[in-house]
Amino acid sequence: MYKYCLECGWNLSTAEGYSEREVSERAIEHFVATGHTVESLRLPPPIAIEN
Ligand SMILES: [Zn+2]
Question: How many domains does the chain have?
Answer without folding.
Answer: 1
